[in-house]
Amino acid sequence: MRRTVFNEDHEAFRETIRAFIEAEVVPVYDEWFAAGQAPRDFYYKLGELGIFGINVPEEFGGAGLDTHKFEAVLYEETSRAGVQFGGSGVHVLLALPYIKMLATDDQKKRYLPKFVSGEEMWALAMTEPGTGSDVAGMKTTAKLSEDGTHYVLNGAKTFITGGVHADRVIVCARTSAPSEDDRRFGISLFAVDTKSEGYSIGRKLDKLGLKTSDTAELAFVDVKVPVEDLLGEEGKGFSYLGHNLASERWGIAFGAYAQAKAAVRFAQQYVQERTVFGKPVAHFQNTKFELAACQAEVDAAEAVADRALEALDAHELTPAEAASAKLFCTEVAHRVIDRCLQLHGGYGYMNEYPIARLYADNRVNRIYGGTSEIMKSIIAKSMGL
């Protein structure tokens, strides 16, 4: 079945990215893996490639497009090579939509040129120790100063992807207490400069997977945030957070599908090269049947991911559809990658093989962006249940 989601421009971009990965990432990826993060200067290279500016208006140095299809190509190519681009996905997929949606003209002039070049890397700080998916339970506060020139930020965040290298972080904080009838009331968003006094990075967290993506704990002690760095209106932060969930969940769904597709490729190569009992592993019927079943699942996930991509680009992807795509694609990836690792035997458990890293990287897909259980709740609600 011929895919129709990509055109010649996307395929030309694919060739560029594939060559870039082979030249700039694959030779040094083991070093990144051991260090637990990509080097900071790598993001300047992504900026030079134009990756950060695809969806940024031309007046701020971007390409001025309105599409997620180039991001989709990135997911496929990084997975195909068994690599990650550090924390850059958060920069584009999570932070940029908030800047475009909420920033004033003055803020866009200050933020976006440096965003496009990679001079300022962005992250998003929602989760707090002990709150998990309960965003409304956050305790971080931002109180307006008496002279009205700045907010004073106090609190802590955890699981912040890109948090080590970030130059600005969109921090969710309480500017007022929740009301009796609405726990979500009183949350605001701030574009916080990480060089601010009182801002500190705690532990760089040691994760099971996504080893080259820096993830950190953040702490704020009387951090002064200029009122000019409030994003959107005070107190409306929770409603803003909901606007970006569909695209975030599509990104996780598409990334999971791409990982599953890559797993089949890795396993197919391995079983043709590996010999057991005098024959290639690919010769055995079980191998053929397992890979065939995995390919069928990947085909289905690709169709779901592509359909969600088209709906997202048309600004028609509903929360329930995004939840369904995320649930399906992440569950497929879990099954497929596990079976492909099994076909590698003991070598599949070794980090020198991409399937092992893929197995660890994939596990978080059913947790972040909303757990599979949350996705089921959203789908069930849309069904009237």
User: Given the structure, what is the number of helices?
Assistant: 12
Our estimate of the beta-strand percent is 15-25%
Query: What is the CA-CA span between the terminal residues?
Result: 35 Å
The low-confidence parts are: none
Structural class: alpha+beta
Order of helices and strands: HHHHHHEEEEEEEEHHEEHHHH
- From the spread of the alpha carbons, the general shape counts as globular
Task: Output the strand order for the largest sheet.
Answer: 1-4-5-8
User: Quick check: average pLDDT?
Assistant: 95
Q: What is the helix fraction of residues, given as a range?
A: 40-55%
Number of strands: 10
Major sheet summary line: 4 strands, mixed
Radius of gyration: 21 Å
Provide a descriptive summary of the structure in words.
It is a single chain. The protein has 385 residues and is α+β, with helices and mostly antiparallel strands. It contains twelve helices and ten strands. It has helices at residues 8-25, 29-35, 42-49, 69-81, 88-102, 105-117, 237-243, 245-273, 285-313, 319-343, 354-362, 372-382; strands at residues 122-125, 141-144, 150-161, 168-174, 187-193, 199-204, 215-226, 230-231, 275-276, 279-280. The strands form three sheets. The protein has a four-stranded mixed β-sheet with strand order 1-4-5-8, with helices on one face. The chain has a four-stranded antiparallel β-sheet with strand order 2-3-7-6, with no helix packed on it. The chain has a two-stranded antiparallel sheet with strand order 9-10. Helix 4 runs parallel beside helix 8, helix 10 packs antiparallel against helix 11 (354-362) and helix 10 runs antiparallel to helix 12 (372-382). The longest helix has 29 residues, at 245-273. The relative contact order is 0.11. The model has no long low-confidence stretch (mean pLDDT 95). Residues 235-383 form the Acyl-CoA dehydrogenase/oxidase C-terminal domain. Residues 123-223 form the Acyl-CoA oxidase/dehydrogenase middle domain. Belongs to the acyl-CoA dehydrogenase family.
